[in-house]
Specification:
Oligomer: single chain
Number of strands: 3
Order of helices and strands: EEE
Shape: rod-shaped
Helix content: under 10%
Radius of gyration: 21 Å
Strand content: 35-45%
Distance between the termini: 24 Å
Largest sheet: 3 strands, antiparallel
Strand order of the largest sheet: 1-2-3
Number of helices: 0
Length: 66
């Protein structure tokens, strides 16, 4: 997270905030296929997107304080 406060007037300020999740955008793989009879045996066929470890997420926010 990065944050910065800007003074607008004497009694007014503007707060800016930027947050990044999974900035490197690296995948988080699930368990490999364990069925010996499967054509995909030993391969990773899914990622753990359902755990909130999905793609890169950026979030920005502004707040005016007076």
């Amino acid at each position: 997270a990065l944050a910065r406060t800007f003074k607008v007037k004497e009694q007014m300020k503007l707060d800016f905030r930027a947050e990044a999740y999974n900035l490197a955008n690296s995948p988080h793989f699930g368990s490999p296929v364990r069925d010996v009879n499967s054509a995909n045996f030993g391969q990773y066929t899914r990622t753990l997107d359902n755990l909130g470890l999905g793609a890169r997420t950026l979030q920005f926010g502004l707040r005016l304080v007076f």
